[in-house]
Design goal:
Strand order of the largest sheet: 1-2-3-4-7-8-9-10-11-12
Number of helices: 11
Oligomer: single chain
Order of helices and strands: HHHHEEEEEEHEHEHEHHEHEHE
Bound molecules: iron/sulfur cluster
Shape: elongated
Distance between the termini: 32 Å
CATH superfamily of the largest domain: Aldolase class I
Strand content: 15-25%
Structural class: alpha/beta
Length: about 350
Amino acid sequence: MTTSVYAMTTNDWARAFQERGFSLSGLHFWLDGLYKDSSLWNRHVASNTVTSLRQDFDFDLPQISKILKSEDGTVKFQMQFKDQLEVETVLIPFPKRYSICLSTQVGCAMNCSFCYTGTQGLKRHLKAGEIVGQYLKAYEWLLQNDAKALKPSVVFMGQGEPLHNVDEVKKAIEVFNDTKLIGLGRRQMTLSTVGFVPGISQLKDFPKINLALSLHSPFDDERSRLIPVNLKYPIKDVMQAFDELPFIKSSFMTFEYLMIQDFNMNDEHAVALEALLTGRKAVINLIPFNPFPGSGWKRPSEKEVEEFRQKLVAKKLRVMVRSTKGDDILAACGQLKIDQQARNYVR
Ligand code: SF4
C-alpha cells in the first residue's frame, strides 16, 4: 500500500527529499502546495521533484458519500475510503469555533453497551492518512459554507477506540500538530479512551494533548456492564496507567460520565467518585445518555441530571454538563454507526 501524503510530517518529507536527492530548498513550497495551493509547485518546486513524488505517494482523500445536517448546526459526514468501507465524521459548532470529531477505526472491538458503533464489531483500523483525511474533507466543506471559520479543533471520539490503533493515531496527531502542515495546538486536540491500558502507557510518547477517560461508573461491576473491556482492565489499572504518564499531574483530565436513568446516578456514585477523583486535576463531564434504536438504557430527566450534578459539586468536584449535539441525526456521543434506516438523508 502506498503511503498517504497526509500521514507524513515535515521530518518525513525532509527524509523523502534527501533519499531522492532533491534540494530541500523546495520543501517549504512543496508542503504549502500540499496543504494550501498546489499551484505553488509550478512556480517553486522542480518539475522532476513533483513528478517523482506524485508517483511515489498516495494523494487521495476519503470521499464524502453523504451529509446530514442537524437543526443545531452539527453536520455528520459519511466518509468512504478506497476499499468502500465507511466511517462517520462529525463537525460540531461551538460559539467561537468548530470541532471535528474523528473516527479512528471502521467499527470498534470494544462493544460498549451504550454505543451504537460497538454493535457493528471491528472491521479494520484506519491509517493515519485516513484519519487526517477526514479532517481535511470536513474542513474543506466547512470553508465552503462558512468562509471565515477558524481552523477546527479535533476530538478523537468518533467510531473506534483510538488507543486500540495507537500507532496510526499518534502519527495523525503529529501531522495535526506539525506547524508547517495543519498546525493545531496540542490543546486543540482531545483523545478519549475507554481505558485501553496497553495504549495508555504509549501516550508518554505522544505530543501532550488533552485526555479524556470514559468512566461512566466508579464501580467495576457496573462499568463492566457498560464497557466490557473493563473486565480485563479494571478502573484501578486504568487510573494507575494514567498516573504513570509523566505529564498527568500538571494537566487537567476529563472524566466522561454518561448519565443513565436508574443506573449510575445515586448517592453511592457521588461518594465513590469523590474517593476516586479528589486530589486529581479532574473535570467530570456529565453526558445525558442518547438513546438509539435497540438500546436498553434510558435517558435521565433534566431534573435528575441537575440533582446528580449538585451532588458532585457538593463534594467539591469540578463538573460540566455537556449539551448533546446532533441527537436528531444520531451524531451525538455513542451514536455513530453507518445505518441507512436510522436517519434522514439530506444531500
Ligand atoms: S464507545 Fe467508543 S470504544 Fe466503546 S464501542 Fe463505542 S466507539 Fe468503541
